[in-house]
Amino acid sequence: MLRAELYRYRLPLRSPLYLNGDWAKTREGLILRLSDEQGEGLGEAAPLPGFSPETIVQAAESLQALALANTRLLTWNVDAMDARADASVCASARWAFDCARQELLAAQPMYGKKLIETCHLLQPDEQIDAVIRNLKTKPVRVLKVKVGRASLDEDIDLLNRLFIALPESVFRLDANRAWTLSQATKFCQSVDWTRIEFLEEPCQTLADSLRLNCVTPVKLALDESLREPHNALADSEIAAFIVKPGIHPGGWRGFQQVLAEAKSRGAKVVISSSYQSSLGISQLAALATTYTPESMPGLDTLSVFSHDVIRPCVMMGEVPRPLVSLAELMPLWTIQSGKVLTAG
After folding, report:
1. Separation between Cα atoms, residue 71 and residue 113, nearest integer Å
2. Tell me, what's the pLDDT at 84?
3. Is 59 contained in some domain?
4. Quick one: 39 and 70 in the same domain?
5. Candidates 144, 219, 244, 268; catalytic one
6. Are residues 314 and 337 in the same domain?
């Protein structure tokens, strides 16, 4: 008997989260549980405000459509859906369904038992002096720094301070498309590229980022551009593809396509979070261990959460948080044999 259940979480954050120009004090998401006579699987849909085109309500509707279609067909084979209906499923819902289905069919959770190392994320509200003191006592191999929120001179000064204070660390930079081509050019000509692994999405348009790649020593990484229609990459040299499976179109198939394209270009793939709960992060950690073991993932986003959800974190250096069980979440609906049995 095929059964699907959907739950919703809403967690207060330890500190406000800056998302594309706005500050969030809570994080919301959906937990999907699929089950049959063989076992169960879990998946998380957590649209990221400011980055995901869908709302959490739309994600729930997409998950309901997937669950109804599959339970009516008596199979968890998502490819059996009508092509037009499948194409309308939003990204976060597709990823949640694919993860739950993967766990169910494999008869084991996507969950790394071993603690893994992740790139350390410098939070925008952290005091830089305190960060430097802490990282001197607990060094990190790779540090990610958001740039483009302050002035160019302030960003350059910040990096120079970090370079001096942390001589053993390598840096990943992310501008989130903050700069014009002129601003990005000035920045790239003013920093030491021997210390920088790559710069994500420097310019306001993909075309300008690719131009920057031609006239400066920038090692370009793409993130948002990978989730949008584009045919302008041609033979451009891309250092890294930053893939956020939780919000990337196409679910499991879309993730595999990114891996294939990156391999064809000789670029590395960095698996990155979109501020999922510990459940979603644990699945991404397992994914990174399996598919991109040579590339340190960017999963250092759990520190803003007040609680873990269902499964504890698996990141090195993480402080354990209170664990919220499935039974403590808000039930939205239960679907069985193609029918909605209960609705919240």
Report:
1. 31
2. 47
3. yes
4. yes
5. 244
6. no
Active-site pick, 144, 146, 219, 268: 146
Q: Are 220 and 237 in contact (CB under 8 A)?
A: yes
Share of the chain above pLDDT 90, in %: 66
This prediction's pTM: 0.91
- Take residue 123 and report the two structure tokens written for it: 């939070």
Confidence of residue 86 (pLDDT cuts 50, 70, 90): low
Instruction: Give the other-Cβ count within 10 Å of 124's Cβ.
Output: 13
pLDDT for residue 82 is more than 50: no
- 331 and 308 in a single domain? The answer is no
CATH of the domain at 338: 3.30.390.10
For the record, the structure tokens of 330 come out as: 């808000």
Q: What is the mean pLDDT of residues 107-124?
A: 77
**How far apart are alpha carbons 17 and 124 in whole angstroms?**
9
Q: Do the domain assignments include residue 319?
A: yes
**Is the domain of 141 the same as that of 211?**
yes
138 is catalytic: no
Residue 35 and residue 126 share a domain: no
Q: Are residues 254 and 185 in the same domain?
A: yes
Residue span of the structural domain in which 80 resides: 3-108+326-343
- Residues 265, 155 share a domain: yes
Two tokens at 199? Answer: 């710069």
The CB-side HSE value for 228 (13 A sphere, CA atoms) comes to 13
Residue 106 CA: distances (Å) to CA of 42, 115, 251, 307? 12, 22, 17, 28
d(CA 157, CA 174): 16
Cβ atoms < 10 Å from Cβ of 98: 21
C-alpha angle 281-284-287 in degrees, rounded to nearest 5: 155
| pLDDT band at 232; cut points 50, 70, 90 | low
Q: Which two tokens stand for residue 181?
A: 């081509």
For residue range 151-210, list pLDDT tens digits in order. Answer: 999 999 999 999 999 999 999 999 999 999 999 999 999 999 999 999 999 999 999 999
144 is catalytic: no
Counted domains in the chain: 2
Whether residue 222 is found in the same domain as residue 276: yes
